[in-house]
C-alpha cells in the first residue's frame, strides 16, 4: 500500500490550488500542511473486511448507544434545527462518550500523553469532556477537500515534536482521512495511539486500522457505534436511504450551543 503524500502547494494543479484557496478563505486559515490520499489509496483503505480487534465498538455490548445514535440521526435530518434540538444532539454525543468502556479522560491523564482534538467538533467535545489539557494539546483545523477523485487534507498547525503517546478525540469517522493525516504528521513510528469517537462507518474504521499498521503505529479505536456507508461525497449515510445522513455536520450542529453544554446522562460503570 502506498502511503498518503505530504505535498507542497506548488505541486498542486491550478484547479486543486484554487480549491485549497477557497477552503482557506471559508475557514479564515492557512493550511501549512497538505496530505493527499489518491483514489487508488482510498479504494484499498476502504476495501471491505472484518473489523480487527483493535476497533472496540461499545454498541456491541450496550444497546443504549444505538438509542443515542438514533437521536443524533433524527436531529441531523430535521429540516430546521433549533437550539433545543442542537442541545439534544450534543447531549446524546456526550452520553455516547460516557458509555465507552474506556474513558478518554482517563487515557488523556496518563503521563507524557499528547491530546489532539481537531476543530471544531473534536475541540468542542474534548473541552466538554474535560480532556483537553493546557499543555501537550493540539486543536488544528483539519479539512478534507475533493481533488481529482481523491481527498486532500489541509492542516493549519504543526506539533512542535512528534508524539509517541497520543489520544485523539473526534466526533465521527466517515472516510477517516482527517485522522489519518493527523497520524501521518503527529506520530513517531511505534507510537501508541487511542482514538475516541462517537460513530464510524465500517470503511472509516477499517481505513484507520490499516493506515496505522502501514505507519507502524499501535492504534486502538474506541467507537460508540459502527454503521452506515460512505456516499460519493464521503459522508456517512444510511445504505437503504442514501439521502439520509447519519450525523450531518457535527461542528455546524453543536457549535451554536457549545458555550452552554448540556449535562451528560449517566456514565456506565466499568467492570
What does this structure look like?
It contains nine helices and 14 strands. With 271 residues, the protein is α/β, with parallel strands linked by helices. The strands form three sheets. Strands 3, 4, 5, 8, 9, 10 and 11 form a seven-stranded parallel β-sheet that branches. Strands 1-2-7-6 form a four-stranded antiparallel β-sheet, with helices on both faces. Helix 7 links the parallel strand 9 and strand 10. The C terminus is likely disordered.
Comma- or semicolon-separated keywords:
seven-stranded parallel beta sheet, single chain, alpha/beta, 271 residues, 9 helices
Proportion in helices: 25-40%
Low-pLDDT ranges? 262-271
Cα-to-Cα separation, first versus last residue: 39 Å
What string, H for helix and E for strand, traces the elements in order?
EHEHEHHHEHEEEEEHEHEEEEH
Strand tally: 14
Average of per-residue pLDDT values? 90
How does the overall form come out from the CA principal axes? globular
Overall SS class:
alpha/beta
Radius of gyration: 17 Å
Described by strand count, sense and barrel closure, the largest sheet is: 7 strands, parallel
Amino acid at each position: 500500500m502506498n502511503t498518503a503524500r505530504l505535498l507542497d502547494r506548488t505541486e498542486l494543479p491550478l484547479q486543486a490550488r484554487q480549491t485549497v484557496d477557497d477552503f482557506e478563505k471559508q475557514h479564515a486559515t492557512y493550511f501549512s500542511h497538505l496530505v493527499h490520499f489518491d483514489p487508488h489509496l482510498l479504494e484499498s483503505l476502504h476495501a471491505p473486511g472484518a473489523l480487527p480487534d483493535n476497533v472496540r465498538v461499545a454498541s456491541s455490548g450496550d444497546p443504549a448507544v444505538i438509542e443515542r445514535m438514533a437521536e443524533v440521526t433524527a436531529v441531523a435530518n430535521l429540516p430546521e434545527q433549533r437550539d433545543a434540538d442542537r442541545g439534544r444532539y450534543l447531549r446524546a454525543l456526550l452520553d455516547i462518550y460516557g458509555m465507552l468502556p474506556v474513558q478518554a479522560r482517563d487515557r488523556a491523564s496518563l503521563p507524557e500523553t499528547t491530546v489532539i482534538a481537531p476543530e471544531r467538533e473534536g475541540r468542542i467535545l474534548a473541552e466538554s469532556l474535560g480532556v483537553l489539557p493546557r499543555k501537550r494539546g493540539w486543536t488544528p483545523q483539519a479539512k478534507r477537500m475533493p481533488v481529482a477523485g481523491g481527498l486532500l487534507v489541509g492542516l493549519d498547525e504543526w506539533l512542535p515534536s512528534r508524539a509517541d503517546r497520543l489520544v485523539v478525540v473526534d466526533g465521527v469517522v466517515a472516510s477517516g482521512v482527517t485522522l489519518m493525516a493527523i497520524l501521518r504528521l503527529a506520530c513517531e513510528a511505534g507510537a501508541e495511539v487511542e482514538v475516541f469517537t462517537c460513530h464510524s462507518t465500517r470503511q472509516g474504521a477499517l481505513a484507520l486500522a490499516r493506515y496505522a499498521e502501514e505507519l507502524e503505529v499501535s492504534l486502538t479505536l474506541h467507537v460508540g457505534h459502527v454503521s452506515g456507508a460512505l456516499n460519493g461525497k464521503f459522508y456517512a449515510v444510511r445504505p437503504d436511504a442514501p439521502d439520509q445522513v447519519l450525523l450531518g455536520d457535527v461542528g455546524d450542529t453543536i457549535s451554536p450551543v457549545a458555550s452552554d453544554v448540556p449535562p451528560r446522562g449517566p456514565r456506565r460503570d466499568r467492570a
